[in-house]
Amino acid sequence: MARPNEEVEALLQEYADLVAITGGDAFKARAYEKAARAIGGHPADISRLDANGLKEIPNVGRSIAEKVIEYLRTGTMAVVEERRAKIPAGVRELITIPTLGPKKALRLYEDLHISSVDELAAAIEADALADLKGFGEKTQEKILHGIRLLRQAGDRIPVHLALDTAEDIVAELSAVTGCERCTYVGSLRRMRETIGDIDILVAANRSGPFMDALVSLPSTSEVIAHGEKKTSVRTHKGVQVDLRVLPPSSWGAGLQYFTGSKGHNIRTRTIAVRQGLKLSEYGLFDAGSGESLASRTEEEVYDRLGLPWIPPTLREDRGEIEAALHGELPEVLTERDIRGDLHTHTDLTDGLAPLETMLEAAAARGYAYYAVTDHAPHLYMQRMTDEKVLAQREQLRQLDGTLGRMRLLHGTELNIGPDGDVDWPDDFLAGFDLCVASLHSHFDLDREAMTRRLLRACENPYVNVIGHPTTRLIGRRRGVDADWDEVFAACARNGTALEVNAQPDRLDLRDEDISRARQHGVKFAVNTDAHSVPHLGQLRYGVGTAQRGWLTKEDVINTWPLTRLRRFLRKGRRA
Ligand code: DGT
Ligand code: CA
Ligand code: CA
Ligand code: ZN
After folding, report:
1. Candidate CATH numbers 3.10.129.10, 3.30.210.10, 3.40.640.10, 1.10.287.3510; the one for domain 251-325
2. Which one is the CATH code of 4-153: 2.60.40.1930, 1.10.3630.10, 3.40.50.10960, 1.10.150.110?
3. What CA–CA distance (Å, rounded) separates 508 from 304?
4. Which residues line ligand 1 (CB under 6 A)?
5. Which fold, 157-246?
6. Topology given in CATH for the domain delimited by 335-569
7. Single pTM value for the model
8. 357 Cα–ligand 2 center, Å
């Protein structure tokens, strides 16, 4: 996605928060929030647009367009700076607590002069909030829970933000004279869902120019260490970046070493030692003579250890070494294997882009099929009706066949009610090509009730895919409680696929649950749940997560040819 869009999205969102914290008009805050989303989801680079171009983006009026232009021209937005100056940074930090809104944050600041997360935690401990209106025991508990979530996430950042930064840095360093190879390694190459720090590896004969280049990047705000072997900096966004430069002859060994994980590396080093070898970031050596046996490529290094090359997403010491030794490594899913997206939205509900725009973007990705699955009526604020969804189906049927080879499927995202029922009666559901069903409410049911609810949805002959099954939001909301083994078994039995939702703040199911479900024989759908054109590109995070769950093409229904997919979607329905 174009970077300026994201910067402006973040800034407008911050402005909306600031307006809300300073007790400003809620309507105004909401308008800025909407504009932020629209700009973030706009497919074209907004820095190329003039005021008129900007105003064509939904929810962007004249005044917001002017502020965007001011930012693009000067790098700041005066109104944001003004509001920032009025509010201590600590108070702004308060609203990063997942369960605390701006209004409450302001009350805490004005009434109790609380201006940081630590102070708030201490105040709750000391029972200092007891007399404050709107801060009953339940609320306080929720806030404490939010603080715990915030602290658990610690300083780790979501994978997509790390990847954006890493790709920028790789591009910059690749342009430095003498660069033979450059890539990101560490947890990012393994596609973990959160990233502690970004590790970059360069192959070059001289390290100095790269270390200097990193230190002087505009994105660098602080130099933590500046040496010949390793340089560490912090970016303006607070992310640490570690850079190592190795001689080109050590590239493969360096890649292997710095990709990790530590657990995986302990295993490979042990294998080396048993063979009288020594494995380091410089190569694989004979422990006796010191002769280098392999170092130039990763394949060479693994091969000399008696192992096939292992995909980075599997390198977590979760059985990949054993599988490799037995020739049983899975041939993991790749982005190219995906033939279509089975969970997407349009502006008929809460998507940003109209149907045609989404379809054109999907066709440009080379998909063989594509499902539109807007929200069903029980998500009341989306105002879906039978008429609207039928009109959409008609529109889809008209467009089918006009988008190259891409075939269209008409679906919906049903809401799983508290008892496991869904929005429409069977005869209406029968008109859809597929149904995704998701939990959007009642997240707090106890384990037994939640399990029963999910089982009922799985057993529904019209429910093909359970969308974002646990509903967790990384760092913000825990997934629901259920007996997942029972749910997985029911999915396998009933031909209900589980989604690997690719939204980087969801990644739901997560890697470890995926492998558990796979052992039950479950099939999966790796979907973006796109609400805008740029979201279609988030598929890579879903694929990375699926790889970490050891999924192959065979396990994933949206890699299958359309005829096979359609057979799966017919499920237990009458012919
Ligand atoms: P993170 O940053 O917490 O998301 O996780 P990683 O896996 O990127 O860990 P990091 O940045 O500490 O180290 C990068 C890789 O370097 C790690 O996966 C394995 C490799 N490595 C091997 N041996 C060592 C060691 O002794 N110390 C450190 N720091 N890294 C090592
Ligand atoms: Ca790292
Ligand atoms: Ca590191
Ligand atoms: Zn959705």
Report:
1. 3.30.210.10
2. 1.10.150.110
3. 37
4. 186-187, 192, 195-197, 199, 257-258, 260-262, 265
5. Beta Polymerase; domain 2 (3.30.460)
6. TIM Barrel (3.20.20)
7. 0.85
8. 38
Which of these, 368, 441, 431, lies nearest to 405 by C-alpha position? 368
For residues 528 and 432, what is the distance between their CA atoms, to the nearest angstrom?
A: 20
Per residue of the chain (575 residues), give pLDDT as tens. 457 888 899 899 989 888 887 777 888 888 999 999 999 889 889 999 999 999 999 899 999 999 999 999 888 899 988 888 887 777 777 877 877 877 788 888 888 888 888 889 889 888 888 888 888 888 888 888 888 877 766 678 999 999 999 999 999 999 999 999 999 999 999 999 999 999 999 999 999 999 999 999 999 999 999 999 999 999 988 899 999 999 999 999 999 999 999 999 999 999 999 999 999 999 999 999 999 999 999 999 999 999 999 999 999 999 999 999 999 999 999 999 999 999 999 999 999 999 999 999 999 999 999 999 999 999 888 889 999 999 999 999 999 999 999 999 999 999 999 999 999 999 999 999 999 999 999 999 999 999 999 999 999 999 999 999 999 999 888 899 999 999 999 999 999 999 999 999 999 999 999 999 999 999 999 999 999 999 999 999 999 999 999 999 999 999 999 999 999 999 977 55
Instruction: Say what the alpha-carbon torsion angle 192, 193, 198, 202 is, to the nearest 10 degrees.
Output: 40
How remote is the CA of residue 354 from the centroid of ligand 3, in Å?
Answer: 42
Residues 39, 178: Cα–Cα separation, whole Å: 39
Cβ atoms within 10 Å of 119's Cβ, excluding its own: 17
Q: For a pocket test of ligand 1, which of 163, 187, 190 has the largest count of ligand atoms closer than 8 A to its C-beta?
A: 187
Which token pair is 21? 């914290």
Q: What residue's CA is closest to ligand 1, atom 13?
A: 186
How far is the centre of ligand 3, averaged over its atoms, from the C-alpha of 243 (Å)?
8
Query: What's the token pair of residue 124?
Result: 């709750």
What residues does each domain of the chain span?
4-153, 157-246, 251-325, 335-569
Tell me which residue has its CA closest to atom 25 in ligand 1: 262
